[in-house]
C-alpha cells in the first residue's frame, strides 16, 4: 500500500469514527424531539417508534394549564441578565489584569484562579446564609449574583489569554488621539474580543440555562422556578409523565441550538485562539 493510499484510508477511518461519535451525541436530542410529539401512552407502548401523528397536546397543556410559561420567563431573565452582567464586568477585569501587569493585579488573578479550584459543595451552605443576609435569597437576584461572581475566574483566564494577542500600539495610538481609558477599551479593544466574548456567552449561557441546583435551592418553593426545575416535577418515584418531560425538554433545547448555531464559528475561533495565545 502506497503512502497516499494509506493516508486516504486513515482519513476515511477518521471520518467514519467522527460520524459515529456525532450520531451517538445527536441521538438523545433526536429521541427527545421525536418523543415530544407522542402521547404518554404512545411513548410507554413503544419508546423508539416514530410518532404516528403530530401530537401537540403536551405542548398545549404545558403552556396553558401549568406555570411553565413563567418558568420559561425566569430562565430567560436569569440567562440574559447574568450574561449581560458578565460581558459588562469580566472583560474589563481581564483587561485591567493583563495591561496593568502589577503585583496586586497578579495577586488578584491568582485569587480568581484559586477560587476555581474550590468545589461548589464546599461553600454552598455559607453562600446561602450570605444570600439571606443580603436579602437575595428567594428571588432571581440571588442566582444572578452567583452566576456573575462564579464566572469571573474562568472569564478572566479566557480574556487575559486572548488579550495577549492584541498589540498595545493600537491603544497607545488611541490614547495619543485623546481617547480615555474607558473609550480605548469599549471602542477599540472590546470589538476585537468578539470571538472570546462569544465563547464565554456560549459556555456560561449553556451552564446557566441548564442549571438545576441553584434555582432549585435559591428560588422560593411553591412557585415556578426555571424550565429545568419544572421539567423534573413530572418525574415521580413510581410513575412519570414522559410526554410532558420530552415536550418541556424540547422547548428548552431549541433556543440553545439556535444560539449555538449562530455563534458556532465565533465560539470555535475564540477557544482556539485563546488556547494558542495563552
Q: Could you explain how this protein is built, in words?
A:
Residues 274-278 have low confidence and may be disordered. The chain is 76% helix and 0% strand. Helix 4 (68-100) packs parallel to helix 7 (141-150). It is mostly helical. It starts with a helix and ends with a helix. The chain has 14 helices and no strands. The protein is globular, with a radius of gyration of 23 Å.
Summarize the model shown.
The protein is mainly α and 278 residues long. It is built from 14 helices and no strands.
Nearest-angstrom radius of gyration?
Answer: 23 Å
Q: How much of the residues is beta strand, in percent?
A: under 5%
In DSSP terms (H or I, runs of 4 or more residues), the helix count works out at 14
- Work out the number of β strands: 0
Name the helicity range.
over 70%
Mean pLDDT: 85
- Given helix and strand content, the structural type is mainly alpha
Order of helices and strands: HHHHHHHHHHHHHH
Low-confidence stretches: 274-278
**Euclidean distance between termini CA atoms:** 41 Å
Write down the overall geometry: globular
| Biggest sheet architecture | none
List keywords for this structure.
278 residues; mainly alpha; 14 helices; globular; disordered C terminus
Amino acid at each position: 500500500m502506497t503512502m497516499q493510499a494509506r493516508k486516504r484510508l486513515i482519513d476515511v477511518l477518521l471520518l467514519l469514527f467522527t460520524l459515529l461519535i456525532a450520531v451517538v451525541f445527536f441521538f438523545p436530542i433526536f429521541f427527545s424531539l421525536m418523543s415530544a410529539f407522542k402521547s404518554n401512552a404512545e411513548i410507554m407502548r413503544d419508546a423508539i417508534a416514530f410518532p404516528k401523528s403530530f401530537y401537540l397536546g403536551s405542548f398545549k397543556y404545558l403552556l396553558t394549564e401549568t406555570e411553565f410559561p413563567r418558568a420559561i420567563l425566569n430562565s430567560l431573565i436569569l440567562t440574559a441578565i447574568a450574561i449581560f452582567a458578565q460581558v459588562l464586568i469580566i472583560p474589563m477585569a481581564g483587561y485591567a489584569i493583563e495591561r496593568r501587569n502589577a503585583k496586586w493585579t497578579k495577586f488578584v488573578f491568582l485569587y480568581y484562579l484559586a477560587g476555581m479550584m474550590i468545589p461548589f459543595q464546599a461553600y454552598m451552605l455559607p453562600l446561602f446564609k450570605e444570600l439571606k443576609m443580603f436579602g437575595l435569597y428567594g428571588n432571581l437576584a440571588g442566582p444572578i449574583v452567583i452566576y456573575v461572581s462564579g464566572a469571573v475566574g474562568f472569564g478572566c483566564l479566557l480574556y487575559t489569554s486572548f488579550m495577549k494577542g492584541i498589540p498595545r500600539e493600537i491603544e497607545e495610538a488611541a490614547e495619543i488621539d485623546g481617547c480615555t481609558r474607558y473609550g480605548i477599551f469599549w471602542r477599540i479593544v472590546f470589538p476585537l474580543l468578539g470571538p472570546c466574548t462569544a465563547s464565554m456567552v456560549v459556555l456560561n449561557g449553556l451552564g446557566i440555562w441548564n442549571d438545576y441546583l441553584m434555582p432549585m435551592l435559591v428560588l422560593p418553593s411553591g412557585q415556578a422556578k426555571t424550565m429545568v426545575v419544572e421539567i423534573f416535577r413530572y418525574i415521580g418515584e413510581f410513575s412519570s409523565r414522559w410526554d410532558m418531560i420530552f415536550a418541556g425538554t424540547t422547548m428548552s433545547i431549541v433556543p440553545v441550538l439556535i444560539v449555538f448555531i449562530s455563534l458556532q464559528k465565533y465560539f470555535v475561533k475564540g477557544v482556539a485562539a485563546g488556547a494558542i495565545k495563552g
